[in-house]
C-alpha cells in the first residue's frame, strides 16, 4: 500500500516538473546496478532520523530530484558518448535560429567539420496542429439539463470516452474548466484550454499535440457523442465537433529541393536534428553546418554554465522554501572554493549567489590557445564534480532537509537492509495529504 501511495504521489508531481524524457534517461544494466549498490551502501551507514513531515516536503523531494536529473542530462549532452571528455560534443549552427535550430547527432569519432555536409534550408510553411474551437457561451449560464453526459475523442485507432456530471447550479465556465482538466489529465494527445472573450463568454479549445497529416489522414482527432454510453448533447452544446484549423505538413527546401515533413523536428542525413521555428523571409535560405572544434567547445561551456545556473537557482529556491537546511549551500560553496581561482583565470567567475558569469574575452582567449583541452581542464574537472553532486542529490534529496538525527550507526559494523532503501533515497514518507 505504501509503494502504491508513493507511486501516486510521484506521478502527480512528475508531469509538472518533468514534462519530457531524453535518451539520457535510459540506462544500461550496469548503471542501474551501480545505483542500486549506492542505495544499499547508503542504507547501511545512514543514521536513523525522525520522519520529516509537512505539506511541502513531498514537493521539495521531487523538485530536488528532478532538478538534479536535469543537470545530469545537460552535462551528459555535452560529451561524446565514447569519450571521457565532458565537453567534446560537436555543435551544429544555424545562421538564422528564428527560422531553424540545428543539433549535430552524427558520429562524433569520425566527424570532420570540413567534410561534414552542410545545407541551405528554406522554410515555406511550418507543420500545423488540428484545432477544434468550441462555441463561445455565457460564463454564468447553463442550459444543459442536470444529468450524466459523455462524448468520445477518436485519436489514431483508439476511442476515448469522457463522462461528466452536470449538477444544478453549475455554470458554463465551471464545466468548461472541469472538462479541460479531465481531458488534459488523460494525456491522450490533445491540449485543451478555456478561451475567454471581453463579453463574459468562454469556449473550449482543443489542439492536437501532433502536427501534420501522417498516413494521408485529413484529421488527427474527432469529437463526437453519436455512439457514446451516456447522454448525448454536450458536443453540440459546447461546439466541440467543429474543426476550425486543419493539420498540415511542414514545407521546406534543402539545397533548393522541395521536401515536406509531418513534424517541425526532423533529421537530415543522420547528421543533423533540425527544428523549424519560423518561415524564411524574402526567400532567404538559412545555412546549417558544423562549428569548428574550438567554437563547439565554447558553445558547450556556455551550455554548461546555463545548465549549472538554472540548477543553482531552482535548488536554492526549493531549499529556502522547504528544505530549511544549510547543507546544500555549504556543499556548493565548498566546490566553488576549490575551483574559484582556476575558473576565474579563464573567464568564469562565481557571483555572490553561487551562479557563474562568463567573460567572453578571457574564455575565447583560453579556448584558442594551442592546447585548449589542457587550458580548459578546470572546466571539465568542475563539470565532473558537479555531476557527482547532482547524482548525490538525486539519490537522496531528503538529506538536504532540516531533519533530526536520532542515532548514528556504528561505522563498519552494519548490514544493508534492502527493505528500507526507499526511505533513504528520499521517496518514502510517513504520511500523505
- Tell me the Rg in angstroms: 27 Å
The class by helix and strand makeup works out as alpha+beta
Tell me the fraction of residues in β-strands, as a range: 15-25%
- Overall mean pLDDT stands at 82
| SS field, number of helical segments | 11
> How many individual β-strands?
19
How many separate domains make up the residues?
3
- Give the CA-CA distance, first to last residue: 15 Å
Topology (elements, then pairings):
Blueprint lengths: L1 H16 L11 H17 L2 E2 L7 H21 L14 E3 L5 E5 L14 E7 L5 E3 L3 E2 L8 E9 L2 E9 L5 H15 L3 E7 L4 E8 L12 E4 L9 H5 L11 E5 L2 E5 L3 E4 L3 E5 L9 E5 L2 H31 L3 H19 L2 E3 L5 E3 L1 H8 L4 H4 L1 H19 L9 E3 L13 H4 L9
Features:
433 residues, alpha+beta, Immunoglobulin-like, five-stranded antiparallel beta sheet, four-stranded antiparallel beta sheet, 21% strand, globular, disordered N terminus
Could you explain the architecture of this structure?
The protein folds into three domains: 2-88 and 295-424, no CATH class; 92-127 and 249-290, no CATH class; 131-238, Sandwich (Immunoglobulin-like). It is built from eleven helices and 19 strands. Helix 1 (2-17) packs across helix 3 (57-77), helix 3 (57-77) runs antiparallel to helix 6 (293-323) and helix 7 (327-345) packs antiparallel against helix 10 (377-395). The strands form six sheets. The protein has a five-stranded antiparallel sheet, with no helix packed on it. The radius of gyration is 27 Å and the shape is globular. The two termini are 15 Å apart. The model is unreliable at 1-19 and 424-433 (pLDDT under 50). It is an alpha+beta fold and 433 residues long.
Amino acid at each position: 500500500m505504501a509503494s502504491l501511495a508513493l507511486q501516486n504521489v510521484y506521478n502527480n508531481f512528475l508531469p509538472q516538473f518533468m514534462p519530457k524524457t531524453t535518451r539520457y534517461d535510459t540506462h544500461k544494466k550496469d548503471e542501474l546496478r551501480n545505483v542500486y549498490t549506492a542505495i544499499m551502501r547508503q542504507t547501511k551507514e545512514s543514521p536513523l532520523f525522525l520522519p520529516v513531515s509537512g505539506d511541502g516536503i513531498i514537493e521539495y523531494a521531487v523538485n530536488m530530484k528532478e532538478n538534479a536529473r536535469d543537470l545530469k542530462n545537460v552535462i551528459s549532452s555535452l560529451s561524446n558518448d565514447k569519450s571521457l571528455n565532458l565537453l567534446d560534443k560537436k555543435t551544429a549552427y544555424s545562421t538564422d535560429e528564428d527560422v531553424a535550430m540545428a543539433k549535430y547527432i552524427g558520429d562524433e569519432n569520425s566527424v570532420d567539420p570540413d567534410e561534414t555536409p552542410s545545407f541551405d534550408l528554406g522554410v515555406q510553411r511550418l507543420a500545423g496542429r488540428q484545432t477544434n474551437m468550441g462555441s463561445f457561451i455565457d460564463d454564468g449560464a447553463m442550459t444543459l439539463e442536470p444529468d450524466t453526459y459523455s462524448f468520445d475523442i477518436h485519436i489514431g485507432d483508439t476511442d476515448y470516452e469522457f463522462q461528466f456530471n452536470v449538477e444544478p447550479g453549475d455554470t458554463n465556465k465551471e464545466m468548461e474548466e472541469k472538462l479541460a482538466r479531465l481531458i488534459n489529465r488523460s494525456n491522450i494527445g490533445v491540449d485543451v484550454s478555456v478561451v475567454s472573450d471581453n463579453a463574459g463568454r468562454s469556449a473550449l479549445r482543443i489542439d492536437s499535440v501532433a502536427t501534420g497529416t501522417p498516413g494521408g489522414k485529413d484529421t488527427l482527432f474527432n469529437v463526437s457523442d453519436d455512439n457514446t454510453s451516456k447522454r448525448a448533447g454536450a458536443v453540440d452544446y459546447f461546439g466541440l465537433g467543429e474543426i476550425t484549423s486543419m493539420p498540415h505538413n511542414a514545407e521546406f527546401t534543402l539545397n533548393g529541393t522541395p521536401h515536406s515533413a509531418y513534424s517541425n523536428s526532423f533529421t537530415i542525413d543522420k547528421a543533423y536534428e533540425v527544428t523549424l521555428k519560423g518561415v524564411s523571409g524574402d526567400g532567404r535560405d538559412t545555412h546549417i553546418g558544423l562549428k569548428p572544434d574550438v567554437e563547439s567547445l565554447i558553445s558547450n561551456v556556455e551550455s554548461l554554465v546555463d545548465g549549472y545556473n538554472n540548477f543553482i537557482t531552482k535548488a536554492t529556491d526549493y531549499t529556502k522554501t522547504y528544505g530549511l537546511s544549510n547543507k546544500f549551500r555549504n556543499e556548493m560553496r565548498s566546490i566553488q572554493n576549490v575551483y574559484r581561482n582556476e575558473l576565474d583565470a579563464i573567464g568564469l567567475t562565481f557571483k555572490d549567489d553561487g551562479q557563474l558569469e562568463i567573460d567572453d574575452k578571457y574564455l575565447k582567449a583560453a579556448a584558442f590557445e594551442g592546447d585548449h583541452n589542457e587550458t580548459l581542464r578546470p572546466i571539465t574537472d568542475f563539470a565532473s564534480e558537479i555531476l557527482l553532486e547532482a547524482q548525490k542529490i538525486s539519490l537522496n534529496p531528503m538529506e538536504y532537509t532540516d531533519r533530526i538525527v536520532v542515532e548514528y550507526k556504528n561505522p563498519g559494523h552494519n548490514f544493508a537492509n534492502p527493505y528500507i532503501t526507499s526511505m533513504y533515497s528520499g521517496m518514502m514518507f510517513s504520511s500523505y495529504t
